[in-house]
Write a structure and sequence with these properties.
Layout: H1 2-26, H2 28-36, H3 41-69, H4 71-75, H5 86-105, H6 110-122
Length: 125
């Protein structure tokens, strides 16, 4: 049971990371335009972090609500742990928020990302 839950947690964490990477990549031109028009790098980074945390917050909130609502159904399939285990209901959302912060706040190849955003804002397509 622990192996399956660990695999599920890893898959969810990778999913959160991937969705945030995709969402940020979709806004590359907008970010480039903001930088070309004179926005500070810290303002743009704040925008990306807020966007990412908003998505993670909505997902974590809906997940907690669904978990609490379906607790009785889930309880019939659990052995040795409560469906409303406070340790699990605290640690998993915290891990997902940390993953979101890592992806939104520290993009892979940050220097290349800023240059690419700048070039997208300067292109005349």
């Amino acid at each position: 049971m622990t192996i399956f839950s660990s695999i599920g947690l890893v898959l969810v964490t990778l999913g959160v990371y991937s969705v945030l990477a995709y969402t940020t990549a979709r806004r590359t031109q907008e970010i480039g335009i903001r930088l070309a028009l004179g926005a500070k790098g810290s303002d743009v980074l704040g925008l990306v972090i807020r966007m990412g945390l908003r998505l993670v917050g909505i997902g974590v909130g809906l997940g907690l609500i669904a978990s609490l609502a379906l607790g009785r159904v889930i309880a019939t399939q659990l052995w040795g742990v409560s469906a409303y285990d406070p340790w699990t209901l605290t640690c998993v959302p915290v891990l997902l928020v940390i993953t979101g912060l890592m992806r939104a706040g520290f993009p892979r190849g940050a220097r290349r990302t800023w240059i690419r955003w700048w070039r997208c804002g300067m292109s005349r397509d």
